[in-house]
Amino acid sequence: xxxxxxxxxxLLSGARSVAVxxxxxxxxxxxxxxxxDDGGLWKERRAEELARSEAFFRAPExxxxxxxxxxxxxxxxxxxxxxxxxxxLEKQVPEMLLITQNVDGLHQKAGSENVxxxxxxLWRLRCTVCVHEEENLEELPPLPACPxxxxxxxxxxxxxxEQLPAGILSTALDTVGKVDVMLVVGTSSVVQPxxxxxxxxxxxxxxxxxxxxxxxHNTGFMDFALHGKAGEILPELIEGI
Length: 241
Ligand code: BJW
Ligand code: ZN
Fold this sequence. Notes:
Layout: H1 2-14, E1 17-22, H2 25-28, E2 41-42, E3 45-46, H3 47-50, H4 53-58, H5 60-75, H6 81-92, E4 95-100, H7 106-110, E5 115-117, E6 120-127, E7 133-135, E8 153-157, H8 168-176, E9 181-185, H9 197-203, E10 207-212, E11 224-227, H10 230-238
Parallel strand pairs: 1-4, 1-9, 4-5, 9-10, 10-11
Antiparallel strand pairs: 2-3, 6-7, 6-8
Helix pairs in contact: 6-10
Bound molecules: ligand BJW and zinc ion.
């Protein structure tokens, strides 16, 4: 483990460009529930079942209750050492893009500047009818209405079956196709297209490194895999780079 850590540190130190893909595991130590671990439940439902447009249009009050609960929960959460380590890494390597599947905004709160939100944000709202979009950090009513047309607003996140925001996926693909090192942290790597980004990077010649509590669908093809808490491994990994 120590020799592997030294090798990865050397790779990061020598890298001109790094891409990092993060998932819910990065925020777990901040108290934000993950999607597919045992703690990823809300009122005995899997978060995954509610994070889809069919659920929203069938029962918008239920889905908004879930998102309002998450907004209130995340508002009270602080970044953890994993978020801070990635913010520090951005300052240490010449080029770094942090691609996150998370919608909690904790990377930005920790000081990361170059962040691409693949699945949107809990703090963005979109109209279900017109083009209105807004950033909103306030407490919301059970069914928030569009200030332009009065129709229902929805969370500005990407649900299953929906396209990722325009330009976001192409930026992610372009970047991972050019980097020296790709670090994948705290994701089960089951959700596409995010899970494919590491494959694209590896095919283009990047060294791929996974940090996760346990092996994932992608562990087998990674060049390096470190198993443990992101909040413990990442600070150690970037120390002295
Ligand atoms: C720790 C830790 C610690 C814990 N330290 N580690 C190709 C094949 C098959 C299906 C598809 C395909 N292409 C597209 C699809 C369909 C679908 C999909 O991927 N389905 C799969 C489930 C099979 N994808 C889509 O629909 C995507 N859209 C799309 O592809 O559009 C094009 C298209 C449209 C129409 C037709 C065809 C194509 C959109 C996906 C959107 C995902 N949205 C969500 C909700 C976002 C909003 C919200 O937050 O509410 O995004 S679902 C949910 O999963 C959320 C997450 O970002 C995402 C990923 O989860 P993540 O981050 O990996 O979390 P977990 O819980 O799964 O894992 C946590 C990990 O951390 C675990 O491994 C732990 O061990 C670890 N961990 N503590 C380190 N302390
Ligand atoms: Zn509207």
